Amino acid sequence: LLLLLLLSAAAATNVAVLSDPSLVPAGANLSFAAAVAGTFGACSSSSCPVRVQLQTRQELEAAGSGAFQVLVLPQGQLLDGDAALAATYLNFTRRGGDVMLLHSPPTRLLRVPDAEADINLFSPYEPYLLHNVTAVAQLGGLPGHRGVLPAAVQGVSAVGWTVPGALFQPLVAALDRYNRTVGWAVGMVQHASHTPFPGARWGLGGLRDWALYLHPDGALVPALCRFVCNTTSNQFGTTRAAASSSSAFSSFFASSSSSS
Q1: How many whole angstroms separate alpha carbon 207 and alpha carbon 184?
Q2: What angle, 0 to 180 degrees and rounded to 10, lies between the N-to-C axes of helices 247-259 and 221-229?
Q3: Are 207 and 220 in contact (CB under 8 A)?
Q4: Distance CA 178, CA 29 (A)
């Protein structure tokens, strides 16, 4: 019986949150990174244990490829103009690691081969800019799926571009005051095992309001937790040694895909 319990125990998801004083903007990077680490740490439960560590770029490189399953960039713009960080980020996801970019998307394209072009998430194209978002709605018909924001916020729609073997899924809709969907507050790109980013999942959030990403009352937090707790599952099939808890979350992504 003890052996069965041990075998059925959920494997912990190790999450690295980038926090590096050498990166610009340093102040916001460090303070928001610590708060975001608390958000992901609070996702942890007996069925989905999560371990979170703040990491500089050098620490992340030294930890090696198997130390973390998820890399969180508290601001996507940290990739702008930092070639060393961009290289670390690319190497992580080329090994199949999951990444999440929050708050502010990169404004510069990463120089990659054409087959890896979808690594350049988001788009500054005018139709994808979000103005006066007043509410968000989690897709999939979950209880409490809609949240009214304290104030209207701006941002960029969480759009991921796909190539053969990659699938984009909106996870949280952004709504205006007329309850119309104007874009995506949180999105995800999943990759098949034969792509340049084998089995990798990329989460992205484009609303520019720090509080929305923080625990316990952030309107986007449930989607962030589901992303982390589903790291062993993929629409293209299981890509890592799967924890038994992952099956509880796979239906969420399947239903959100069908509802979109």
Answers
A1: 9
A2: 120
A3: yes
A4: 34
Specify burial of residue 66 (Cβ count, 10 A radius: 0-12, 13-18, 19+): exposed
Q: Are 106 and 76 in contact (CB under 8 A)?
A: yes
How many other C-beta atoms lie within 10 A of the C-beta of residue 189? 24
Give the separation between CA 11 and CA 7, rounded to whole angstroms: 10
Angle at 22 between CA 105 and CA 70, to 5 degrees: 50
pLDDT value of residue 242: 32
Single-letter amino acid, residue 161: W
Split at pLDDT 50, 70, 90, the class of 10 is low
122: left (phi over 0), alpha (psi -120 to 50) or beta: left
Distance between CA atoms of 249 and 49, rounded to whole angstroms? 14
pLDDT tens figures, 208-229: 998 899 877 778 888 899 899 8
